[in-house]
Input
Amino acid sequence: MSPRRNDTPALPRRELLRGLGALGLVGALAPGSGARAAAPPVADALALALVGAEVHVGDGTVIPSGVVLTEGARITAVGGPELRPPSGAAVVDLKGKILTPGLIAADARVGLIEIDLEPGTRDDSGGEGPIRAAYDAGAAINPRSSLIQVQAIEGITSAAVSPSGGLLSGQVALIDLVYGDRAQMVQRRGVAVRGALGQVIAGSRAATLAKLREVLDDARFLRGRKAAYDRRQTRELAAHPRDLEALFPALDRKVPLTLEAHGEPDIAAAIELAAAEKLRVVILGGTEAWRLRSELAAAKIPVIVYPSQNLPGSLDKLGARLDNAALLSAAGVEVGIACLGDAHNLRNQTQEAGIAVAYGMDWERALTAVTLTIARAYGVDADYGSVAKGKIANLVTWGGDPFEHAHYAEQVYIRGAAIPMVSRQTLLRERYRDLEKIRRRGR
Amino acid sequence: MTSLTRRTRSTASRGGARSPRRAGGLGLGLALAAGLGLGLGGCKRGPAEPPDDPSATAKAATPTKASADAARAQAAVEVPVVLLRGGRVMTATGEILERGDVLLEGGAIKAVGASVDAPSGAQIVDVSGKTVTPGIIDTHSHMGVYASPGFKAHADGNEAVAPNTAYVRSGDGYWPQDPQLERARAGGVTTAQILPGSANLIGGRSVTVRLLPYARSIDDARFPGAPAGLKMACGENPKRVYGEKSGPQTRMGNVAGYRDAFQKAVEYKRSWAKYEKAKARWEKGDARGGGAPLTLGGAGKGDEQEPDPPARDFGLETLVGVLDGEILVHNHCYRADEMSLMLDLAATYGFTIRSFHHAVEAYKIADRLAAAGTAASVWADWWGFKAEAFDGVRENAALLEAAGARPIIHSDSGLGIQRLNQEAAKAMYAGRDAGIEISEDTALRWITQNPAWALGIDDRTGTLEVGKLADVVVWSGSPFSVYAKAERVYIAGELVFERGVSEPRSDFEVGFTDGDIDGAAKGVTP
Output
């Protein structure tokens, strides 16, 4: 069943749909249930059969009338109408709806920042020095942050949570936006190392690159010499050994080095670095990446862009343009789209994708850009990024084009469970919806 | 990568623009002062009129001059007669024509209707399948005073030297070559209020500009005859900027600062009234031919010195302009409790706050805002970047509308201003999603008619109505779609932007744009 707004028009859609998973499991919607009650716990993820939606898989394919089966946290089968729900599965009728993979935020600070200007609410930065590669953002993530549900109810189901600052900011954690459940939320720590090119060291791009090479050299040097280092029998190192050790997985190409870079010189340097150091580099931002699109395509370096950011805000962004994503995509570069560096409004990732489409990007590629490309960039595409058998059941239903403002997410499933479509914001809205009630209390 | 610095900066503001200083309103102010027990005695009324600000350009000094300026500006560009034929016409007056025509003539809207005859010689533009709206208006911009690139040298928006700098004017810091202006125009924006930042309790005067290309100075950009605004700021920013200096350090200090400023304005006004009275008596004495000595120690021209005017203070003069209702107050204020305090303070001193800005918590006092007739300029979804922005809800504008208040979607951002139509869309659909019925016309008014009202120019722009300025946008489709683009933008009948054909840019970008140096970009982007 699919509770819709016109089932009980007096109630707002998000509240109506809250706890749909649980409702789906019992197969009935109690009249008026849900709207005013306290948020229920996330429904136990059992077996779901999501039937009849137009499924946009995330890899470019579309199933006009799809069936998606889940069991526990995983997708067990994806197909057309021929796919029969197993007995015991809760069937959700999604005829007329669109089903997509959950969106994945990249280079996000959600869980690390509550209020930007309040240092006491921030854990996104691991200190003063430029080399903080060992700083593990995953250790600091707050599963009860008010930001979690604000993003989740709009279709953001996972995030690559990254620290910020310095030349090497630290370790990236992949989270699922499961409010209040730390074990379920922090899925993998150390999926990538995050850094930034530009004028980080001594106000110089060249000095920044030199330092990065030095650190990578010393990380290699340290390997196998740890005992010697501990006996002080090695030369001075460019960084603390913990930070150098934290780079080993990147040196082994097990995880990517995600680098914020905007200007053509920095992007060219990132391409050279990837080749010379044999690293898996992902470019974040890439304001002028379009100028080097052939080189990026040849080097198979993914670029995650922030399409709306078209101002020439600094000298390395004078080439900012709204069709960056389209140009890169047409040249064969793997393009991701995200609200990079954001925490509070990661939910606008759909709008960012829409802007990329408005300026020339293919629609299905834009969907891939907010799902599968980001999963690939962070090396988690075996489990994330598309509606495919065996992957985590992070799914979103929409009433229409997800990039259009007209369509907010109708129901979000994370790890196979329908989440409560409630956030601190929707609760505040309801609290002040009827000002007359407050006035009657004499205020 | 976030625009935190911009937000932070916007948290701090100051403003300034010329404002025609004129007589009037004194009686009200004095009556009010008397009501406050200020003991003004017999001094009941008088034409306290400090002279025009000599630093204001002469041509902008009075409304008459401003009108002449407008005429000059409009005469400078010959605008053709244009018939926009067959589009979906959203008038922002409550009416939407599913298929209609709009005639632009002499810089104004000449006709709007289902079918309008083209005068001979009119340029007919087929806009079928497209949407025609009024030009978008932003009540809150720092374009020109916080330009892009964000060079240190471009930081001209906060005169953060003292918590009250009512004496400065944003127009004096405005750089008309800011590349943000070109991008805003491409987003269908025709008019914007340029405010000082929010570092100060009282930041200074604002200026309302039209986004005309090729403006070489603020006077080329001014919206003719628009009143100045006064930028005020509540909350965290002044505290943060001055907390470790001379203060204010707390919200208590903030409010004490506003009271002090307006009390001084009342007294300044009184001193001018006294002077005018004495001068009038002195002149009367002269008229009587050296006649009887009167009061105030003065006498007729015949035997006493002409009374000296009080020392002129441009900051207090600005605040007197507020007391007189000639300068409109734009108050950066996030929290419901602070907005309530400010409404009370304004009522005490007899002025009104035209609009709160960044009013993240406006939905909590929508009833009070409606009663006070104060607009609320809000974002669709910005929240959480500081404590006072923590209680943001997507339905802010919709809840305000439902309560009969006057919501406005503003940007405070060189990015957001490029897609105010989309921000309005988000706020509209969020409201609908929550069961609050918001019509497309209503949501359009959030970015046209309502901001025009807040800026005091709603008699000239903000809707598609006969007689208003031909500030018009033709969109590729519904302006509430993420895919919509402004295709043609008219300001006072002048086609200032035509997508893919004529996209004027600033001096700054000349030579930096691909194709400039090798000549490959011939003529497409002037």
Observations:
- Confidence is low (pLDDT under 50) at residues 1-68, 290-294 of chain B.
- The first strand of chain B starts at residue 82 and ends at 90.
- Chain B touches chain A through 55 residues (CB under 8 Å).
- The first helix of chain B runs from residue 4 to 10.
